[in-house]
Structure formats: structure tokens, C-alpha cells
């Protein structure tokens, strides 16, 4: 049975990418990271990819480049790797339908909050701020499909709830969120890999 081909898009550190690379290498993932692409040439995630022997490409936006033009360029680069899945792992740009329309049901995003909560950047810090104001006791992590330009929304694939009362500092909370993210992302992408490569059933 063939293994799912995964392209990962990153903008920064790439610790979630690393979790995918490790799970691919151990066989746990049931798929291979065939390329890593970043909008930021200096993203450490590209180093991680090179370290794992995976093609690492920077596709940086040109100055004043319209979003649609950039997304079409990005889609061409990604298409060159024939992905079964495109995983946004700390990808900090909104993708338009020019990209998403080419990969229906194949683009997966990770967000460090529960469905419908804290969309956008700095979700972990904002959850912590709400906690310190006594406005919440729980937060979490979700993995979801990205069907359209909605920010951190779309059909949910997996969630994990985190009890924030276990933590006394933002650093501790954040470290735990990342730990949970790594596990949830590997589980959710692993499930999709198994679905995308399962043999078609044939009736006798
Ligand atoms: C993660 O918290 C992810 O959920 C968010 O950005 C962070 C990326 O971390 N979208 P890393 O680059 O994978 O270490």
C-alpha cells in the first residue's frame, strides 16, 4: 500500500513539523513528508526539513504581490510534490481559494484553541489573559480541515481540552499546549494518511 504524500507549510520554528517528521521516520504516521515550504526564508522549520533530508523551499511573497498571485505561485510549487495532504503547521498567512480550491478536503490546519475560540494569532497568550481575568478555566487545541478563507474554522478533525488551572505561568501553559499539539497533529494526520491510502473495497 502506498504511503500518503504530505507537504507541510510553515512560517517559523516548526516544532509541529518536527513531530510529523519524527512520526514519519518511525513509521507511526503512515505517510511521508515529501516537502516543506515556507513563506519566510529564515524559518527554522526549513532547517528541520533539511536535517531530515526533506526538500525545503522558501516561497516568499514579493513586495506588493497580490494575494491571489502569491497563492497561485505557492499552489504550483506544492503541486510539484503531488500531495495527498497539505498540513499548515504554524503557517501564518491566510490562504485564498486560489490555493485552497486546488486541494479540496486536503488542507489541514492546527490551532492552539478549541473550535470557535480565539481565532487568529497569539491564541495561547489570549487564552492566558482571559484565564488571569477569571474568564476561562479551560482551553485546548484543534486540528481541522480548511475548506475556505475562514480563519481557524472548518470541519473539525480532532480536539484536546486542556485544564488551565493546572498551570501557574504562561510559559508552563504554553509548553503544555505545544506538547498536546504535537500529539494531536500526529494522530489526526495519521488518521488521514490511513484514509487516503486505504485500498478501495471491491465486491466479489
Ligand atoms: C503553533 O502553536 C500552532 O498551533 C500555531 O503556531 C504555532 C507554531 O509552532 N498556529 P511551531 O512552528 O510548530 O513550533
Quickly list its features.
single chain, 204 residues, alpha/beta, seven-stranded mixed β-sheet, 6 helices, 7 strands, binds 5-O-phosphono-beta-D-ribofuranosylamine
Question: Could you characterize the architecture of this molecule?
Answer:
- This protein has 204 residues and is of the alpha/beta class.
- 36% of the residues lie in helices and 21% in strands.
- The chain is built from six helices and seven strands.
- It has helices spanning 15-26, 44-51, 67-79, 97-100, 123-132, 170-196; strands at 4-10, 31-38, 56-58, 85-88, 107-111, 138-145, 156-163.
- The chain has a seven-stranded mixed sheet.
- Strand 4, helix 4 and strand 5 (107-111) form a beta-alpha-beta unit.
- Helix 1 (15-26) packs across helix 6 (170-196).
- The protein starts with a strand and ends in an 8-residue tail after the last helix.
- The model has no long low-confidence stretch (mean pLDDT 95).
- The structure holds 5-O-phosphono-beta-D-ribofuranosylamine.
- 5-O-phosphono-beta-D-ribofuranosylamine (GRF) is lined by residues 10, 12-17, 89-90, 110-112, 181.
Amino acid at each position: 500500500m502506498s504511503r500518503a504524500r504530505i507537504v507541510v507549510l510553515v512560517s517559523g520554528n516548526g516544532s509541529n513539523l518536527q513531530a510529523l517528521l519524527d512520526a514519519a521516520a518511525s513509521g507511526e504516521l503512515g505517510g511521508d513528508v515529501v516537502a516543506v515550504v515556507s513563506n519566510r526564508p529564515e524559518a527554522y522549520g526549513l532547517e528541520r526539513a533539511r536535517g531530515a533530508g526533506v526538500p525545503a523551499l522558501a516561497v516568499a511573497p514579493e513586495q506588493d504581490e497580490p494575494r491571489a498571485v502569491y497563492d497561485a505561485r505557492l499552489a504550483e510549487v506544492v503541486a510539484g510534490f503531488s500531495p495527498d495532504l497539505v498540513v499548515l503547521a504554524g503557517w501564518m498567512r491566510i490562504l485564498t481559494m486560489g490555493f485552497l480550491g486546488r486541494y479540496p478536503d486536503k488542507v489541514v490546519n492546527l490551532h492552539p484553541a478549541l473550535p470557535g475560540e480565539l481565532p487568529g494569532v497569539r491564541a495561547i497568550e489570549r487564552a492566558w489573559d482571559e484565564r488571569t481575568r477569571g474568564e476561562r478555566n479551560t482551553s485546548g487545541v484543534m486540528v481541522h480541515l480548511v475548506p475556505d478563507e475562514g480563519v481557524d474554522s472548518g470541519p473539525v478533525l480532532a480536539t484536546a481540552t486542556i485544564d488551565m488551572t493546572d498551570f501557574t505561568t504562561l510559559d508552563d501553559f504554553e509548553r503544555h499546549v505545544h506538547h498536546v499539539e504535537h500529539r494531536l497533529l500526529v494522530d489526526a494526520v495519521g488518521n488521514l494518511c490511513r484514509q487516503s491510502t486505504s485500498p478501495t473495497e471491491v465486491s466479489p
